[in-house]
Amino acid sequence: MAVVLIPPSDKKMRGQLGWIKRQLDNCKKRNEKIFSKINNEILIEVVLKRTNKTERKHLDNFDSVYDEIKDREIKEFRILLIKDFGKSFASRNKFVETIEAMLVNFYKGIIQDLTKWEAPAPKIIDSGQVENKETQDELYESDSLEEAIEEPLREEMKESEPNN
């Protein structure tokens, strides 16, 4: 079983790796009992851009992944739950029971507490960056925006009127 997460595009590789690690730490804090059951079966796969290469690490060894993929860009993360069925694979009933339990534990322990990355809200430009400083000052000094717009329009109309 697997779930795919797209890493934050506004962060560098270390930030992206830290983001996925924090996601999983959050899952561990919220469902410690279930997480401890599946902890040994969780793998994180890092899919790299412009290559077929992926890095798959166990959750406990995930900190070493940076050294192996230093100069690459991360396309996505896959959180995998891989279970060894052993003899229960031969039995139809045991297989179905094991898959169902695995699915519920994966959802409760990992998926329900993951959050999708969202781009940060756009920032307002500082007043020092506005090209026409004079117009901006007029807007701030006027009592309302309507006055700041209507006054230049009135002046234009007076100038364009024919003289009687």
Q: What can be said about the biggest beta sheet? A: 4 strands, antiparallel
Distance between the termini: 85 Å
Instruction: Give the helices and strands as they follow along the chain.
Output: EHHEEHEHHH
* Assembly category: single chain
Sheet with most strands: strand arrangement = 1-4-2-3
* Overall pLDDT: 79
User: What's the β-strand tally?
Assistant: 4
Number of domains: 2
Number of helices: 6
Low-confidence stretches: none
Strand proportion, as a percent range, falls in 5-15%
Query: How much helicity do the residues have?
Result: 40-55%
CA-based shape: elongated
Q: What gyration radius follows from the Cα positions, in whole Å? A: 29 Å
Structural class: alpha+beta
Core attributes:
single chain; about 160 residues; alpha+beta; 2 domains; 4-stranded antiparallel beta sheet; 4 strands; about 15% strand; elongated
